[in-house]
Amino acid sequence: MTAMVVERLGPPDVMELRDVPVPTPGPGEVRIEVEAVGINFADVLAVAGEYLTRTKVPYTPGMEFAGIVESLGEGVQGVSVGQRVAALGGSGALAKYAVVSAAGLIPVPQSLSGAQAAAFPVSYFTAYHGLKTLGRGVAGEWVLVQAAAGALGTASIQLAKAMDMKVIAMASTEEKLQIARDLGADVTLLQDDEDRVQKVRDAAGGQGVPLILEVVGGKRFQESLDMAANQGRIIVIGNASREQANLRPVELMKRNLSVTGLWLTSLMYDRAATAEAAQALSQLVGSGQVTPQVGPTYALADSARAFQDILDRKTTGKVIIEP
Ligand code: NDP
Question: Can you tell me whether residue 156 is helix, strand or coil?
Fold first, then answer.
């Protein structure tokens, strides 16, 4: 079968299309015929060797995907051949077939297309945990969503509005801000607006924002501290700038701020939190209140271009690759 293979870490064009053996599911695993792969900023960082965990090469990228169950390993129960599933695995989805632990299967409403199902798990579970599990957002409260037209950003706006929160959305272009408004953002602001700190504080009633989903990092992290309300909660979800941030704990003391890290991979081991998120999300998606935002779609052979377009901030919604 064809698959994208990375033999040395680096920029997106290190990925090469190769012919590799079809993987065999071991005990507790399933083999899925891949319909659509959701590409995350994390995939780009993993290929570059800059992700939270070390990337071992050679490997096939692709951690989030949807497809049809094609064969079951020993001892797998509760899944049938022919069923459409979404899945989260560490890697391996940029291929015709992928093998994943049955524990990595994510229930998705059957109303979703393959691309929508592939756009769902990472962004929506992360948004849920950022807004609710860790962010403790409540109805009527303001939340700041950065990179608002991206995969996580669009998920965060939709979920925040479903929670009756008020959203300030930031993004780099007017076109991206229009996407945020179309999804219900109450206030939108260009990421490079000169008066952005004051404007964000003013939008939230002059008091600053009680909840911030921080995905840019670097020097923008300091700005998030400045935009936060007293007792504000800053959930650190990403570092798209790939720059280091400085955090002076004393600054947190002065305004009783809290900074909480969020990594979906380790949160998935929290069974109670995962079950709660899965139930809430499947109800919201099933009722049509929330719809995964499918962005540009690429063929497997164009994977490097898809990755580069994410890095170049050209994409909105979830980038999809169809093997
Ligand atoms: P997106 O679809 O949001 O694409 C990344 C976006 O980040 C860009 O479109 C761009 O939006 C913004 N950005 C800001 N600064 C830069 C920069 N210097 N270079 C490139 N992009 C920049 O990707 P994802 O939804 O996959 O991820 C969004 C963020 O959330 C990432 O930081 C990612 O690592 C993080 N994340 C973390 C998870 C976790 O478990 N902790 C899970 C999921 C996502 P704009 O042009 O509007 O600024």
Answer: helix
Which residues, in sequence order, are bridge partners of residue 29?
A: 101
Residue 280 belongs to a domain:
no
Query: Distance between terminal CA atoms of the chain?
Result: 10
Secondary structure E strands in the chain:
2-5, 16-19, 29-39, 64-72, 84-88, 97-101, 105-106, 142-145, 166-171, 187-190, 209-214, 228-236, 258-261, 294-299, 318-322
Residues of the chain with pLDDT under 50: none
Among 50, 152, 174, residue to substitute to test ligand 1 (most atoms within 8 Å of Cβ): 152
Q: Which domain holds residue 81?
A: 2-120+293-322
Give the helix/strand (H/E) hosting 16.
strand 16-19
Ligand 1 environment, Cβ below 6 A: 40-42, 122-123, 126, 147, 149-153, 171-172, 176, 191, 215-216, 237-241, 262-264, 310-311, 313, 315
In a domain, 285, yes or no: no
pLDDT at residue number 89: 87
List Cα–Cα distances, 173 to 101, 178, 228, in angstroms: 40, 9, 23
Domain total in the chain: 2
**For ligand 1, mutation pick of 40, 120, 269 (most atoms within 8 Å of CB):** 40
CATH number for position 311: 3.90.180.10
Please name the residue whose Cα sits nearest to atom 3 of ligand 1.
150
**pLDDT at res. 111:** 84
